[in-house]
Amino acid sequence: MSGPDLVGWAATALFAASYFCRGPRALRLLQAAAALLWLVYGIALHAMPVIVANVIVASLALWSAWSAAPRGASPERREALDADLADLARRSHRNGRGAIAIPAEYLEVLAVRD
Length: 114
What we know:
Layout: H1 3-17, H2 24-45, H3 48-67, H4 75-91, E1 93-94, E2 100-101, H5 104-112
Antiparallel strand pairs: 1-2
Helix pairs in contact: 1-2, 2-3, 2-5
């Protein structure tokens, strides 16, 4: 199986896992992660429709996850949410096969946390 195929299957698995999310924020973050993997897949295949579609989906999912924070949330809570997203971005990396590796603890948290 080629590198792009592995990325595509990982994106499919993340998207399918999003159906088990209990809260809207977790759902959107997991779908954003899947869309980012689909974006990598599209780039690897030079498939412009896949690239454009997943830039849009990832952007909307991240925006809606951020804006889904409770209204009136304290600045500290919003800062904590921003820090979570920044930490996820910082700790995600490309593995030896070129795929983006997302730390497992984030996938577990996203599946059960709002």
